Amino acid sequence: MTTLLKEVLKHEVYPAMGCTEPVAVAFCAASAAELLGREKILKAEITTDPGTYKNGLAVALPNTRAGAVPATSGRQTAGAPGEKGNLLAAALGALIREPALKTELFRKISPSILKEAKGLIKAGRIRLGVDYKRRGIYIEARLKTARHTVVCVVAGGHSNIVLLRKDGKILFKGNPIKAGTHHAFYKRRLKKSDFRQLFKEAEKADAADLAYIKKGIEFNLKASEEGLKLKKVGYYIQDLIKKGYLKRDILSTAKLTTSAATDARMAGATVKVMSSGESGNQGVVAILVPYLVGKAFKIKETKVLKSIALSHLVNSYIKVFTGELAPICGCAVAAGVGASVAVVYQQKGADLKAATLAVNTVISDIGGMLCDGAKSGCALKVASSADSAIRAAYMAVNGEGITELEGFIGATAEETIKNIARISKFGMDKVDRIILNIMSAKTRNVKRKA
What we know:
Elements: H1 4-12, E1 15-17, H2 20-34, E2 43-48, H3 50-55, H4 86-96, H5 111-122, E3 126-130, E4 138-144, E5 149-155, E6 161-166, E7 169-173, H6 185-192, H7 195-203, H8 207-227, H9 233-242, H10 250-266, E8 272-274, H11 280-296, H12 301-322, H13 330-348, H14 352-366, H15 378-397, H16 413-427, H17 429-449
Parallel strand pairs: 2-3
Antiparallel strand pairs: 1-8, 2-4, 4-5, 5-6, 6-7
């Protein structure tokens, strides 16, 4: 049987250009459009779940800013923010029609395709709606030409096609997915695991796994370099250090490096990042925090890489309970926790007691961080997650942290994770709807003013 780590690396840790949800929308539209050959699209209707809708509302897309240099040219620059939204992402995907590119679909955007996509939107030939009843990832693209009607449905994962239909005839149908309950086989294995098993899985990392994990470090450091060219969160943390208001230490280095990488992503820079738990921003935290701490403390490379493997596993483990697109910030309660446990592993190995303290402390600290969609402000949350992860790990290594005597914290790491997942899924459902309503209203107001 394939190791659980290999399954997680295969399905949830991959290079991505641009925010994950708009890319998924573009992929779905491209998968439907591919069935049409080069026929002209007369009408397109895109429907998403609330989380996907929220995450694509205010995030910039790569290669869409004025004067952008397409990623295919070999030059990758951050530059000014690009244009935003799932609607534009869907239009671009429907025109590019190359679903085989998956998470790198946006590197095929050219000035002519961008102009044509804007034309589709301006003419009212493509529309976007949200299905508030959906939970988990759900994207449906329905395209019409003069001769054909095609439908593609992506659900349960950002590139997991469950239905392809042309003129009423089903071309492909995956296993039925019930929102919020479906898990692939490896996710069922994850859900049945505990931290003792996650430690063992990380230790199984072979040379191929470690090489792949190392590639993720390189991608994310490159994104950080690009992000520092923008005068955003990472730049200003760096500026505070240069002016002597912050000390250059592992905390400030981790905050500026991770936030800068997120700055680049959210601005639509044409750079790849290695994701974690199918999220680019979570990949930034899960990978770069353990890497930077390990480097600062001169931990052997193999141990650092295995700690990042553990970080990925913990991030994915938490998300099988909270869901792919939770009302609370995954960079905090999933990637931040994974990074903290990874740092503990670097210092103390498979120490369950210390790992539990790290989990409890991060979740107690920033477990209530709201998710209000992907946007430039995510860099602030990433910086906070990096800070919390390192602080909690240091406390845990020294036998200190939050215990079950406080608040909703459980007696074990697994119990705490299930508690925060319960709060997120059931307690914050109405909160998520209110946030989405506020965001949607602002978008409508902007369109009316325009």
